[in-house]
Amino acid sequence: MGRTPCCDIKGLKKGPWTPEEDKLLLDYVQASGPGNWRMLPKLAGLNRCGKSCRLRWTNYLRPDIKRGPFTPEEHKSILQLHAVVGNKWSMIAAQLPGRTDNEIKNYWNTNLKKQLRQAALAGEHPALAAITTTADSPAGTAATISSSPAARHAAQWETARLEAEARLSLLSTSGAAAATATTSSSSSTVAAADAEHSAPDIFLRLWNSEVGDIFRSSSSTAAVAREEDAGVLLQRQEGVLLPMEPKPAEDSSATSNVTTAAYGLTADEYQVFLDMAAEDLGGFFHGGGFSQIYQSPSLFAEFQ
DNA sequence: AAGTGCCTCAACCGCGGCGAC
DNA sequence: AGTCGCCGCGGTTGAGGCACT
């Protein structure tokens, strides 16, 4: 390849946008619509790369962007969606109308992750401690999981399950505290709202569903050995996932065998499992997500 | 009032996916 | 089938604002 990135072109402006540049971009997009970001700067009279223009539009200038602090519903949705899909910010953003992936990512990194870590360091949630610390470490869980899809998937499910369980525990604790304490902090507001909703956790519901049954039955026996075989660099210690010493990379030709062997499934069976999970989650996502569920009593009842 | 450290968030960077050729 | 180029995503950075001493 070796293609020169568009932003390497000399003379293009970088850094903060001026109001004049914003107006040029806004006027052009409103007149012609977004698209062809590569050509847009030239057509709009901007001395910026297309990438920068797209980012400015999607994260700041778009008219449907919602400003202001996250609501308790949004807060909870982010927590639960993150437990299910991980750092798929665009996927999470798609469930929160008016919120950008960048905004959610920042919110998570500066707010939610800190909250979880503080709770973990307080000794209330050892599982969270392992998750939040290893996830931050370059040599931690996410970074050291092998490239095997099955291994990644197994680790994601396991991590999400532990995180969801710990979070439920955290919410029940903080919710009870919020019911007795009368502070005005945003976190207690959120906790109070959570306690008020006491809604089921999407991940635990999925975990306890038919999809989870299949996953558990196919992966529970000799789980540790399988995780090692599959290259999942984790070890379980009293319910806490800890990073293991890295093993030499698997031969790529053997990866598909490892994939299915890790679960004790044939390739077809594994695909069926993935399809079922996708279908279950897909229905959830296409149904409008958590905000939709919370706003609709019938949907909420159905979800329980 | 000045200095310092922390936090937030807009913006950048690098990479991968995917369609066009 | 291979290459090119655009787009979008996730991780990271750093300037500016804020709180604290």
Protein described:
By secondary structure, the chain is an all-alpha fold. The chain has one domain (72-286). Helix content is 65%, strand content 3%. It is built from 17 helices and two strands. A two-stranded antiparallel ribbon has the order 1-2. Strand 1 and strand 2 form a beta hairpin. Helix 4 packs antiparallel against helix 9 (149-180). It is found in: Nucleus. InterPro entries: Homeodomain-like_sf, Myb_dom, Myb_TF_plants, SANT/Myb. Keywords: DNA-binding, Nucleus, Repeat, Transcription, Transcription regulation.
Stretches where pLDDT falls below 50 for ≥5 residues? 1-7, 126-155, 169-202, 214-267, 269-304
Quote the distance from N terminus to C terminus.
51 Å
In terms of structural class, how would the helical and strand content be classed? mainly alpha
> What order do the strands of the largest sheet run in, or round the barrel if closed?
1-2
Number of helices: 17
The overall number of domains is 1
* Shape summary: elongated
Spell out the key features of this protein.
disordered N terminus; single chain; 65% helix; 304 residues; mainly alpha; DNA-binding; two-stranded antiparallel ribbon
The gist of it:
With 304 residues, the protein is mostly helical. It has helices at residues 19-32, 40-44, 50-61, 72-85, 89-94, 101-121, 126-136, 141-144, 149-180, 186-197, 202-207, 210-219, 223-230, 255-263, 267-286, 289-295, 297-303; strands at residues 234-237, 240-243. It has one domain (72-286).
